[in-house]
């Protein structure tokens, strides 16, 4: 797992992100020893690699602690919000709690009903921070209407636009109860230039128009881009993000089929074989070199992650809370929905007498495999996107666009890599087929931060099993207030153009 040469320089650029949560973040331009958009534009003329470096600085934000504006041990970038989503959706159970992380505000859903809680602030602050970083890059390259004349500028701009859309997409999911029902309502402020000047909320439709425009432009700009590592967004990743955006609307399924087909054609990633699912050559979902990973980051000693990380919260074999009393497990009902011949059952500790019941001890693990092991995360990486989620989204779109025959063929082919007998798929149709695709998405991508997105686009009702510490057995609809974050108190105080949640 090599570190490429620009990363140390790039991480230095992320120093600008370490602002405490008490500070006003509606700032026109970054301050201190930080180049603003005009300075960056001049610098790019002198040193074209700086533009690329700043884009990679955006990627560094995704794994840097405190980028949600707090010193919480739940604040460590994108993977932190993946945990939030998995817990809120109910697929990840907090089954034991010694240290209290996630217990009341996330597992018990208290934060989403109280806009003063910092979890709301973290989500808002993190994604708008990435947006501001992307806007700095766009501005430095000539602005939103620039037509790049060279490949390096094209590829840098394409990545910045894709990352801007990626952040707006997560904001629509985390901050809006139901995108479809709120289509013409004012929900989120839009920023397409550096700085936060306190914009009023735009409608959901306007946010979606921006995301689609950004991603279509990014896809065009990234055509032909050969990225130096999986850290960067390439054309297939951008197309998959667009697939997520369009599918969350629930009315563009033929377009989702088209864009996910294109992404499948443009990626070199491939499905994991059965041995890889549990303990194959590349280990347990811990290596960015995995053939199925489309987008991820190589964690190493220079990055310096330890306890405050996704691995520090999830993995039995890291120096972690999961090893000493804060167990995150698969929902028992979801686990029992897997047939006995499903290879994925072996990813979880199936011993109801153990406090570590259904812990993912054979899916996610530090490769040294020492319980409560290394305090430095250097042999386990972060995955943001892999081939199977793209394939399952494509299958879902086929079924929802009326192409059930193709959907069943692809689903059966996929399940043949997980089950001894997938012949039952041929008898499915209508809602039963859709239910099976949704279930397989949850099973395959458990712990990877995709369950919440699937819950929303499938308008699901969730019922937690008995291995959750809180709210087990209570039906909850996808659009309930307590399953969606609130505009944080800090934003309402700092932005005079937003005075209420609604």
From TrEMBL:
<dbReference type="GO" id="GO:0009279">
    <property type="term" value="C:cell outer membrane"/>
</dbReference>
<protein>
    <submittedName>
        <fullName>SusD-like starch-binding protein associating with outer membrane</fullName>
    </submittedName>
</protein>
<keyword id="KW-0732">Signal</keyword>
<dbReference type="Pfam" id="PF07980">
    <property type="entry name" value="SusD_RagB"/>
</dbReference>
<feature type="domain" description="SusD-like N-terminal">
    <location>
        <begin position="108"/>
        <end position="223"/>
    </location>
</feature>
<dbReference type="InterPro" id="IPR011990">
    <property type="entry name" value="TPR-like_helical_dom_sf"/>
</dbReference>
<comment type="similarity">
    <text>Belongs to the SusD family.</text>
</comment>
<keyword id="KW-0472">Membrane</keyword>
<keyword id="KW-0998">Cell outer membrane</keyword>
<dbReference type="InterPro" id="IPR012944">
    <property type="entry name" value="SusD_RagB_dom"/>
</dbReference>
<feature type="domain" description="RagB/SusD">
    <location>
        <begin position="363"/>
        <end position="476"/>
    </location>
</feature>
<dbReference type="Pfam" id="PF14322">
    <property type="entry name" value="SusD-like_3"/>
</dbReference>
<dbReference type="InterPro" id="IPR033985">
    <property type="entry name" value="SusD-like_N"/>
</dbReference>
<feature type="signal peptide">
    <location>
        <begin position="1"/>
        <end position="22"/>
    </location>
</feature>
């Amino acid at each position: 797992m090599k570190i490429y040469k620009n990363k140390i320089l790039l991480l230095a650029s992320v120093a600008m992100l370490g602002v405490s949560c008490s500070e006003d973040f509606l700032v026109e331009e970054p301050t201190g020893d930080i180049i603003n958009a005009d300075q960056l534009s001049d610098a790019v003329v002198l040193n074209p690699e700086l533009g690329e470096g700043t884009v990679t600085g955006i990627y560094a934000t995704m794994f840097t602690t405190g980028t949600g504006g707090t010193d919480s041990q739940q604040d460590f970038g994108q993977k932190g919000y993946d945990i939030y989503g998995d817990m809120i959706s109910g697929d990840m159970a907090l089954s034991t709690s010694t240290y209290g992380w996630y217990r009341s505000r996330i597992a018990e859903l208290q934060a989403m009903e109280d806009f003063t809680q910092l979890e709301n602030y973290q989500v808002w602050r993190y994604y708008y921070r990435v947006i501001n970083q992307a806007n700095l890059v766009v501005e430095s390259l000539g602005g939103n209407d620039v037509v790049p004349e060279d490949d390096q500028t094209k590829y840098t701009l394409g990545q910045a636009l894709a990352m801007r859309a990626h952040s707006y997409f997560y904001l629509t999911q985390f901050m809006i109860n139901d995108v479809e029902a709120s289509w013409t309502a004012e929900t989120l402020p839009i920023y397409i230039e550096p700085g936060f000047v306190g914009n009023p909320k735009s409608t959901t439709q306007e946010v979606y128009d921006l995301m689609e425009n950004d991603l279509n432009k990014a896809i065009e700009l990234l055509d032909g881009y050969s990225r130096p590592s999986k850290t960067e967004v390439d054309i297939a990743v951008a197309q998959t993000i667009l697939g997520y955006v369009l599918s969350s609307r629930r009315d563009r399924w033929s377009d989702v089929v088209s864009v996910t087909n294109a992404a499948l054609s443009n990626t070199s990633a491939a499905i994991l074989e059965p041995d890889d699912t549990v303990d194959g050559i590349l280990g347990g979902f811990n290596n960015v070199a995995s053939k199925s990973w489309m987008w991820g980051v190589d964690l190493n000693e220079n990055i310096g992650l330890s306890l405050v990380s996704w691995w520090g919260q999830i993995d039995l074999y890291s120096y972690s809370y999961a090893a000493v009393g804060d167990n995150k497990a698969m929902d028992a009902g979801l686990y029992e929905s897997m047939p006995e011949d499903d290879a994925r059952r072996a990813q979880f500790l199936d011993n109801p007498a153990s406090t570590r019941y259904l812990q993912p001890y054979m899916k996610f693990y530090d490769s040294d495999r020492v319980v409560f092991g290394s305090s430095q995360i250097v042999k386990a990486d972060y995955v943001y996107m892999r081939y199977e989620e793209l394939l399952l989204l494509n299958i879902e779109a086929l079924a929802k666009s009326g192409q059930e025959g193709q959907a069943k063929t692809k689903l059966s082919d996929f399940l043949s890599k997980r089950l001894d007998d997938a012949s039952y798929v041929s008898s499915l149709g209508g809602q039963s087929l859709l239910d099976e695709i949704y279930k397989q998405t949850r099973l395959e991508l458990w712990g990877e931060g995709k369950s919440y997105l699937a819950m929303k686009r499938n308008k699901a009702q969730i019922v937690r099993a008995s291995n959750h510490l809180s709210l087990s057995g209570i039906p909850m609809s996808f659009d309930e207030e307590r399953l969606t974050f609130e505009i944080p108190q800090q934003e309402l105080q700092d932005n005079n153009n937003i005075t209420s949640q609604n």
